[in-house]
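Study this protein:
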Amino acid sequence: MALILTDILAPDALAVLQSALAGAAWQNGRESAGAQSAAVKANGQLAGDDPMAREWSGAITIALSRHQGFHTAALPRRITTPLFSRYGVGEHYGAHIDNAIRAEGRERMRTDLAATLFLSPPDDYDGGDLAVETSFGRPRFKLPAGQMLLYPASSRHEVLPVTRGTRLAAVLWVQSLVRDDADRMLLLDLDRSVQALAADRGPNDPHILALTSTYHNLLRRWVES
């Protein structure tokens, strides 16, 4: 299931990042794609060693480390360094599935979740929707700048062609403490219910404590060390 996370970046930080990206040195995005994905990828991307990319990927990583909604939904064990992408008129990323394993430094990590942080206001461009195939259909997403879409990395997805303006985004992948998507969603639903009931009844209600115990016992059962 695809989840929308809000307020990833503060408005002032987002404005500074948008200004920096406007003058960035974009490279061919195919250089970071696998052989199959490269055939359907047409966009620009910042090199991983670009000083501005390093600075802002670090800022996004810190922002995610402080975002409770991200932690609750993703239960992250590791996340990749965010990559910055740019789509101009006519550019797109055709239907594909992300690699199951990504190199992060000298190590490799499993990609359980993919995340797209939208950096351009929707009014700045036409087209460019992110379409994700789910069990409920193929919804399209075009979120406000500063919001993030989190979805299973096993999902087939694509960025539709941009027909006007420029679409900027940052993408990253997550290795979760809980590998199975269904188990992770069950924990998320349970956590949300516990939080809602606690706000109504208070955290010391015995039923809240019992549900909290169930949450942690399920997490203990499913978590991977």
Helices lie at 11-22, 35-38, 51-65, 68-74, 181-201, 206-222. The chain is about 35% helix and 30% strand. The chain has two domains: 3-176, 181-222. Residues 3-176 form a domain with the Jelly Rolls fold (CATH 2.60.120.620).
